[in-house]
């Protein structure tokens, strides 16, 4: 067995190129740095979740572990903060971070152990970070770090130094420490979006004298502002369009506090011992040092004190202020209604977010599925309810919408995970483009995913297809869809549900080994497959697109196509005639 130097991330400060090396995963090999790594004597550790049966079994195991640790962590947090909150309170507030952290650490642990077992490792290099500076301040900060080389290097380094015999060469970390701070993320707003925001702020300010402490609270619902307005009027209250959030208190990590905060680890070994040691080290400061300030911020909110119902589709995951406020109101008996966040829900074989959302909600509003289950109300596709489809360019371009998975796995499920499977996904889309016949490249528009995550999406497309059109990301996806002759979806997510629900000609394809469906969803996708909307290979999708390109409308308006589309949409992208009344009924059902 040859001896190799282990490289865990794409951070080249830890690379040694003068000897045989071992990349822990494909995530180490950035596209724009291929001139560096392509000529090295390098091997790559096989990725453990390329075995999809193992992935599914691991998802089940990690969910059981999550439930166990959530219960333990809730008890410890109650004792630490001298409170008596229920398990549901902590599930709402801390549950998303805990689940993501468990899954991230398990993946990093497994790959390190796999490397040690399969290869003779001469050593590795680790950056020496000031420990307290590596702790995220909230869930959004953790999210951003988990997608970066630095954030992952921190976890790999802890595992290597604490749970292996691999020699670790320590390198002082000399970059500015603000590299650990959450990146400022902003998206350009159109003039119309800016006007809508100003109108919402103005309406909310004007409504202040008329608000009641028992008003229903709606935020991040995905409803159009007009439907939101009508819904609140039907609930008997002056519309309040909340969107602005006070700044989250930022509290530095405290070593003494961290040393006092412990969860059980005695008598536990291997991965679970590692995990239980890292949770007190890495739990975001907002849940520990900053918890009292979080409660103070929540107490100062101008939101209703005793809302009759809380409804959101978006703020229940990363918005720690909303989660803390909601957890407090739920403890007092306020029903929590959550609307389906988007695609993959109800169809993917496994999704933690779907499981989490449905577990914390008193009622869950789906886009059509879930009939027969009391908590689930098939209400309709919230993103398209009451929105006018608008004019469409029937001679427009072919719109190909892309995704960019995290290079490092974040939350495992029935989707593309990590960099290696991401490369397979990109190659599938390239195969689709290569197999198109008689469709000029200038009539194809590629929509890269808005978060690049180190994939260099635009450079890849320009290098491979210099004449293809690439969207800059300046326009909303719905506007691009309305200008397309044919919409092509390449993964199981939200946008194709919107296009089918709006009756936009659509072709879908993906690798079914990476986007596994649950058994209840298979008949609906089979119906789409039968009429040529859904395809399991890029070649089949390209053949259909080429066949229909000269007269997409004629193909799309065939009765069998429309019947299949409607059959599918009734279950996954339903529209209703009177959405405000349907939603009113959903929000006013007894708990």
Describe this structure in words.
α4 packs across α6 (149-163). Residues 182-187 have low confidence and may be disordered. This protein has a six-stranded parallel beta sheet with strand order 13-12-11-14-15-16, sandwiched between helices. It is 42% helix and 11% strand. The chain has 22 helices and 16 strands. It is α/β, with parallel strands linked by helices and 591 residues long. The protein starts with a strand and ends with a helix.
Which properties best describe this structure?
alpha/beta; five-stranded parallel β-sheet; 22 helices; globular; six-stranded parallel β-sheet; 591 residues
The overall average pLDDT, rounded, is 91
The total count of strands amounts to 16
Biggest sheet strand order reads: 13-12-11-14-15-16
Label the overall shape.
globular
Structural class: alpha/beta
End-to-end gap: 63 Å
- Proportion in β-strands: 5-15%
Low-confidence spans: pLDDT under 50, at least 5 residues?
A: 182-187
